[in-house]
Amino acid sequence: MKQLNILKKLLPYLVPFRLFFLLSIFMATLTVAAALYIPILTGHIIDALLGKGQVDFASVFSYLGQIAAIMLVSALAGWLMQIWGNHICYGVVCGLRNALFEKNAHLPLSVIDRSSHGDFISRMGVDLDQVGTGLLLGFSQLFTGAITIVGTLGFMCALNLHITLVVVLLTPLSILAAHLIAKKSYALFGMQSKIRGELTTLIDETIMGQKVVIAFGQQEQVKQRFDEIDGRMYPASLWATFVSSITNPATRFVNGLVYAGVAVAGGLFVLSGGLTVGQLTVFLSYANQYTKPFNEISGVVAELQNALACAKRVLDLLEEESAVSEVKRGSSDAKSAISPGQAVGKSEMENTENSPAKSAISMGGAAGKSEMENTANAPAKSAISMGRAVGKLEVENLSFSYQVGQSFLQNINFLAKPGQRIAIVGATGCGKTTLINLLMGFYEPDGGRILLDDQDVAGFTKESLRSNYGMVLQETWLKQGSVRENLLMGNPNAGEEELISAAKAAFAHSFIMRLPKGYDTPVGEEGGGISKGQRQLLCIARVLLSHPTMLLLDEATSSIDLRTERKIAAAFSAMMEGKTSIVVAHRLETIRTADLILYMDAGKIVERGRHEELLEMEGAYAQLYRSSAWHGA
Amino acid sequence: MGKLLIYLKDYKKETILAPLFKMLEASFELLIPLVVAAMIDRGISGEDTFYLWHMGLLLLGLGVVGLISSVTAQYFSAKAAAGFASQLRRSLFAHVQGFSFAMLDRMGSSALVTRMTSDINRVQAGVNLVLRLLLRSPFVVFGAMLMAFRIDRAAGLIFLGSIALLFFIVFVIMLLGIPLYKKVQSHLERILTITGENRKGVRVIRAFRREKEETEAFYEENVRYTKMAVFAGNVTAILNPLSYVIVNGGLLLLLHLGAVQVNGGGLSQGQVVALVNYSTQVLAELIKFASLILTVNQAVASGNRIQGVFEMRNHASQVDEKKQSKKEAVHSTYDVNSEKQNQEKRNQEKQNQENQSQENQNQENQSQENQNLENQIQENSAPPFLEFQEVSFSYENAGEKALNNISFSAEKGEIIGIIGGTGSGKSTLVHLIPGFYEASMGKVLLNGQDVKQYPRLDLQKRIGIVPQTPLLFSGTIRDNILWGKEDASESELWEALELTQAAEVVKGKEGGLHARVEQGGKNFSGGQRQRLTIARALAGKPEILILDDSSASLDNATEAELFREILAMENRPLIILVAQKVSAIRHAHKILVLEEGEILAQGVHEELMKTCSVYREICGEGALP
């Protein structure tokens, strides 16, 4: 079964907790057994209450003492079961979270780019939460439920077989009713969530685009659309809620049947001498308890199924890359992906007993996996660390494809001598950005080589390769933290003076000082009180601070105003002195002063040369250049 | 939350009947232990088989009646909750549709979406549960207690004591648990923040080789979260065993009391059994009640958040009402005005057109044109078509002014260019024209009338705006373009599409005008969306067309073609072009150079080249020769 398969894959994450697992199963059995024994003792006491002056106080007190003791045992065992259950479930989830995060840290960018961030975050958050609570609830209820049923049946059989038969024969009715209702309400819920989906889509797009709605005065029209969908939502929601909520009354009714049956049958048995009144009360209380797990079972199973579905989404991601690599390149000696056990070992909390996996501090999982990112912590077998490069960059016959069989970049060749400035020009989608990604080692080329100082970069660790590059991309990403923390990302050891001078060089110092808390002002992923242009300045300061030997720049098209951009360009030019730089260029100034312009189209370099040379060629570059002023100058 | 309850007003009957039927069911349930006690005391002790059967049937009857009343209650409560949610949702959506830009800024779009989706769902679930259970559980608990009192006073007191103790324990643990879970939640959010950062910022993190630090930070945060979650779980896990001990402690006391009372002849065996049964009922209900309170708590929190949205009122909304009453008066004045102006302008425009159609028009005839316009205005002594009079504006909660002392005027048919750096106030300025924001000081006048005086719809018809981000809405292409003019004919639509180079986009799609647009226009490229949004703005033939840096995602050739077409338009509207590049506005009749919310200089390109150093600087870098 598929679900068993998922459970099997979860098993490695459970291994470190196996002792706790066994203990909590034991405690579950204990607490349920003790709880079931109390009605029997109560029955004995009731039997001792024969009438006025006939009460056997000695045995009453002895039973009361026993009840007290057993009650405490049951409570304590129940508590331990829950505590250990928490420990196991949150521990398993912790291990899965770490594994997922680590997986992400080593995933090739091509894979990350293909998938949605929101989806990944929801797997990390909601899905794993659901796995945690689902496992906790599922296992504890399923298990205690099963023990309750078995235990009750056992005790009842021991007391009286006939009445037990009455109970056992009537209970399937309850299950049947619950099943029928669940089937009906499943369809109704499906309808409800379909309409709810429509409604959410409408809300989402309208509210997100509310300013446009206002600008075009479409409020009434939008309201009408909303009311139309909501009009369908109301009955769907009503019936789904109603039908699903019949389950409880229906099963309660069947319980009532069982209860009445036991009462009558029990009463008759008492009269015929086969049963005591105390035993009858035991049966009555069992009749209540016995059916409870059955009523809860559909809820628990749904919870568990949901948890397993969520676990599957997480496990799928954890297994993803190995599949990709095989399809794409038939990975050679890749060890199996991160061993879950190791990941868990890292995540274990201090108070767990020393598991052997603990020593393997995670990253090792990625070792030898040619497809995974190799960092200094886990160098690929042969990769060595690269020193500080001089800056001769040579690209030989480079090719790359996003999808198997559909080559995107083809036959890219160029040479950047130390200190030269290369401008890459071309329409959107021509492969400029992809080339930058290849140079940074974010993507793996399908063919060809990249040589840095005459050595193939494939032989170096990605980390050491990247330490030679300074990169500024169009999207200005800042991490959540202060301005200072962000600037120090590239060079954690930089001193205050160095920091400020980098900020000054990027024309960021003055606006940083105007922020409420200066360098300690928090900035976030979005907004955070600073403009897009200012974010770009911070990104530039960040690179300036890291003192790279080479620069990879994706020039901003519009997010910095032109005055600042000019200053930036000046700062860059100064910094680019003596540094090899590859620039995806949009500004004429950059292009005109480049040592080499690569004009790209559809993944190929179609023209190359200096500005004047290219103009003389009267090719595609010249055409683009002349058409770029709309007034036709 | 409280004020939201008026949305139940159409469901008064259901709201009252649902809990009533629930209580009815509960009272039948409370009778069961008494019936069983009677079976033991009369049926068994009296060896009355007939009585046993009789009572058995009675139990069955109680079950049937209970089932009927409970199902009825479920129906009423489902109906009330679904109806409540529907009315609340509609009313909330309608309320938000009345929001101004300032209110949208204050609230934030994603928060609004959450209010309308998950918060309302939670409130619906909450209302449903409250109607079904909130009265039932206490009713059963106190009912059981009262029954116990009826059987024996001391037994009743034991019930009272243990129920009070249970409530106290539940209360204390919830008091401890709620802040703990809040903490757990904030730890989880931290984890998700780190996760999100490591996705969105993956290139930067890898470029700066920060993977190890980030992973370690994540591990640390994850362990912290896990510990917190386990701790919170362990604290709340005390509830079950503790309530179990209390209920069974009560049972011990009951049995002991029963033993003494039976011995003294005060109680019968059956009555002791009834007491025991009542105590089990109490336990079951209390457990349900505790989980109910948690759900209700969440629902109330959601309800309060929703109410917060309702309580957001615009200062403008009162003005709006006044505006409505004044509407007629205003209409008569400016309509006459604008009509007169329109005619005169039309003549002028023809002249413009002629000028314009000569390619390579030079500065001379431009300034001549300006001269003409000015002369004409003076002759007619009519107010300028659009005028900013010393306008200042600051956003809510913003310290600094976004616009300071802006004054300029523009006539129909003119092209006004607005240029300046990021954050210089360009977009803010154009947003004041359709009244999206209201000037904090000074006036924005259209045909001599303050734009605040115009009914909103009327302004919208006169002004076509193309926002910075080209956003389309799900539906067909036709639906989207019709936003500009509801009753536009097919030929009008195509006219707008041709004008904006969007016709080829439409023709290229299967279904043409009826081609599907996905949410946000995802199935169109940025450039295609841009052209369609311009067509949308032009479909209504506005008097003013505002292009807010709208050609950013067009390639240069398309952009040039687009502008050529727009310039050659018949009855050209006043075009306001916000731009980063000089190339886009070079030939405007007037260029406003904005810096930090102020107009640094205004004039035509050549003038500015001579007089404005900032403009020269922008030019030197921005314009291709």
How many DSSP helices of chain B?
22
| Number of β-strand runs of chain B | 12
Per CATH, the class of the largest domain in chain B reads Alpha Beta
From the spread of the alpha carbons, the general shape of chain B counts as: elongated
Fourth CATH level, the homologous superfamily of the largest domain in chain B: P-loop containing nucleotide triphosphate hydrolases
Chain-averaged pLDDT of chain A: 79
- Helix amount of chain B, in percent? 55-70%
CATH architecture of the largest domain in chain B: 3-Layer(aba) Sandwich
Q: Count interface residues per chain for the largest interface.
A: A-B, 167 and 163 residues
Shape call of chain A: elongated
Helix content of chain A: 55-70%
For the record, the count of structural domains of chain B works out to 2
Q: Provide the CATH top-level class of the domain at 1-160 and 299-365 in chain A.
A: Mainly Alpha
Amino- and carboxy-terminal Cα gap of chain B:
63 Å
Oligomer: heterodimer
Count of helical stretches of chain A: 21
Descriptive overview:
The complex is a heterodimer of chains A (633) and B (625). By secondary structure, chain A is of the alpha/beta class. Chain A has a domain at 1-160 and 299-365: ABC transporter type 1, transmembrane domain (ABC transporter transmembrane region fold), CATH 1.20.1560.10. Chain A has 21 helices and twelve strands. Chain A has helices at 2-14, 18-48, 57-106, 109-114, 117-159, 161-208, 210-215, 219-245, 247-271, 277-329, 340-347, 432-439, 462-466, 483-488, 496-505, 509-514, 532-545, 562-576, 588-593, 611-617, 620-627; strands spanning 393-403, 406-416, 421-426, 447-452, 455-456, 469-472, 481-482, 522-523, 550-554, 580-584, 596-601, 604-609. In chain A, the strands form three sheets. In chain A, strands 6-9-10-3-11-12 form a six-stranded mixed sheet, sandwiched between helices. A four-stranded antiparallel sheet of chain A has the order 2-1-4-5, with helices on one face. In chain A, strands 7-8 form a two-stranded antiparallel ribbon. In chain A, helix 1 (2-14) packs across helix 10 (277-329). The radius of gyration of chain A is 35 Å and the shape is elongated. Mean pLDDT of chain A is 79; it is low at 322-371, 374-381 and 629-633. Chain B is α/β, with parallel strands linked by helices and 625 residues long. Chain B is elongated and about 115 Å long. Chain B has helices at 12-44, 49-97, 101-107, 109-134, 136-151, 153-200, 202-207, 211-237, 239-264, 269-310, 315-357, 363-380, 426-432, 456-462, 477-482, 490-499, 503-508, 526-539, 556-567, 582-585, 605-611, 613-622; strands at residues 386-393, 403-410, 415-420, 441-446, 449-450, 463-466, 475-476, 516-517, 544-548, 574-579, 590-595, 598-603. Chain B folds into two domains: 1-149, ABC transporter transmembrane region fold (Up-down Bundle); 315-622, Rossmann fold (3-Layer(aba) Sandwich), CATH 3.40.50.300. In chain B, strands 6-9-10-3-11-12 form a six-stranded mixed sheet, with helices on both faces. Chain B is built from 22 helices and twelve strands. At the A-B interface, helix 2, helix 3, helix 5, helix 6 and helix 7 of A face helix 1, helix 2, helix 4, helix 6 and helix 7 of B.
